[in-house]
Amino acid sequence: MPTLRLLELTWGREGRALAPALDLQLADGEALAVTGPNGAGKSTLLRTLAGLLPPVSGAARIDGWRNAAGEEEARISRAAHYLGHRNALKPTRRVCAELAFWHRTGGLDPAEALDAVAVPRVRDLPCAALSAGQARRVAIARLLVAPRPVWLLDEPSAALDADATTRLSALCRDFLARGGIIAAATHLPLGLDARELRLREPITSSVPSDGWSDW
Ligand SMILES: Nc1ncnc2c1ncn2[C@@H]1O[C@H](COP(=O)(O)OP(=O)(O)OP(=O)(O)O)[C@@H](O)[C@H]1O
């Protein structure tokens, strides 16, 4: 079963670490809630795990996971869904086409995924026409149409109403019960049985002192 490992990992911006090096492992079925004040580095950590930012030092990898071709794969970026602040939905694509694009064997089909987040009637709208909460729901539906062992979630309940937040919690609990791994940055509890990584506000800015010289 897959295990997510952080090996003396430091994350940050412009090569400057936002927190001390971290050794941590998350086994299948485990969740990590990354908490802390604005600017503490929660998103930076998740983006680093997703492979969107290079680590300042150390490494993170997934062990014990094989991709669809049956090859062992250590890159978290290949094993994870990343749900960032932006939903990354193609604006001109219709919702059903967006989900069909991401659909993979073993995932829910797009109609089932839209039912799971309770927005079945948006299926023919272009993504640009969705409200903020509808777009977030569709982005969550995308997690369901392609099975991946890790979900990296950055403020996943942002823009969601109470019903959708409850659904998201249930989907996360179901994913964990099936052996998934979740790392979620959150200001609001997601209702999960999760370990907490509490980040502090960094003492120094991650922006180099000469970084604002053009302003
Ligand atoms: N694109 C960027 N370039 C340089 N520094 C950045 C960039 N984005 C964020 N930072 C800096 O990195 C630090 C951590 O930001 P980050 O977004 O990871 O914090 P966060 O804990 O997710 O905050 P929030 O709770 O507000 O979402 C902040 O000091 C911020 O100024």
TrEMBL record:
MF annotations from Gene Ontology: ATP binding; ATP hydrolysis activity; transmembrane transporter activity
Record InterPro entries: AAA+_ATPase, ABC_transporter-like_ATP-bd, ABC_transporter-like_CS, ABC_transptr_haem_export_CcmA, P-loop_NTPase
GO biological process, alphabetically ordered: cytochrome complex assembly
A Pfam family: ABC_tran
Gene3D superfamilies assigned: P-loop containing nucleotide triphosphate hydrolases
Domain ABC transporter: residue ranges: 4-215
Keyword vocabulary terms for this entry: ATP-binding, Cytochrome c-type biogenesis, Membrane, Nucleotide-binding, Translocase, Transport
Family the UniProt entry places it in: Belongs to the ABC transporter superfamily.
PANTHER family: ABC TRANSPORTER I FAMILY MEMBER 1 (PTHR43499:SF1)
Entry protein name: Heme exporter protein A
